[in-house]
Design a protein that fits this description.
Blueprint lengths: L8 H42 L6 H34 L5 H27 L3 H5 L4 H16 L1 H4 L5 H6 L9 H11 L2 H26 L4 H29 L17
Length: about 260
């Protein structure tokens, strides 16, 4: 984007990775709206299978596997979105000016979408954001969730609970949509997979505590976390937006994070 030595890859990725982890940590309370009912169901089944309401080592293991399945699912799908970005941008690389314009436009669009999402959470309009999911998608994945809930007894007791967690990477979620868009804009599958994996790992503390100890998060606390989540999305959106502006020759303060670069 500008002159000077390229910073080390680890240093370049640190602000980006921290932002994704922060989004995950703050998004955990939001995830309860989607994952909470299923978590309650399988937590109840685990307790009945163990014949006790006390938390057992087996239950801790199963909750851990469930959440690991979610994180792996996010990472895999994020990598697929980034691979799609690689193919999309690569189609324009033969014409340098066109390729740069496409990457700049993508950065601007993705950054704007993520920033608008962040503003929605900041001003308490998260319910409106939830409604952005098309009805046909909601119905489709509602069936997937219903299928999983109906078979929860056969899935919770062993390693197959990983699959129960992995299903959540496919369920409609306004937290994950911006992250998948960001992954597409990077055009770097391995990096995107790592970032989405971090986001998934970040959601684990809240869902784990919900399934084992808490049982609920107050509406007031959830609203506070949503506002903080909005601020985190503003950071991610600005990273993408500033990248697009820099490609257009508009110099703005930015982080040295490598987005998609053509081969050669």
């Amino acid at each position: 984007m500008d002159g000077g030595a390229t910073p080390p890859a680890v240093d370049a990725a640190t602000p980006e990775a921290a932002a994704f982890l922060l989004v995950g940590l703050l998004a955990g309370a939001h995830c309860l709206g989607m994952c909470g009912p299923l978590v309650s169901v399988y937590a109840d089944r685990l307790s009945k299978q163990d014949g006790t309401n006390a938390l057992t080592l087996r239950q801790v293991r199963q909750h851990g596997l469930f959440n690991l399945g979610r994180a792996v699912s996010y990472a895999f799908i994020g990598g697929l979105f980034a691979l799609a970005g690689t193919l999309f941008f690569g189609a324009f690389d033969s014409v340098t000016a066109v390729g740069s314009g496409v990457r700049a436009t993508t950065g601007l669009l993705v950054g704007t979408a993520i920033i608008l999402t962040g503003i929605g959470y900041l001003v308490g309009r998260s319910a409106a954001i939830d409604r952005l999911t098309p009805d046909v998608v909601t119905r489709l994945f509602g069936r997937i969730s219903g299928w999983a809930t109906a078979r929860v007894d056969t899935l919770v007791g062993g390693p197959r609970i990983l699959g129960l967690g992995a299903i959540h990477g496919l369920l409609p979620c306004p937290i994950i949509y911006p992250a998948y868009l960001y992954a597409f804009a990077t055009g770097a599958p391995l990096r995107a997979a790592a970032l989405l994996g971090l986001l998934g790992l970040g959601t684990i503390p809240t869902l784990f505590l919900y399934g084992t100890l808490l049982g609920q998060v107050s509406a007031r606390r959830r609203a506070t976390l949503h506002r903080a989540l909005g601020a985190a999305f503003l950071v991610l959106g600005y990273i993408s937006l500033s990248h697009g502006l820099m490609l257009l020759g508009i110099h703005v303060p930015h982080l040295h994070i490598p987005f998609y670069q053509p081969l050669g």
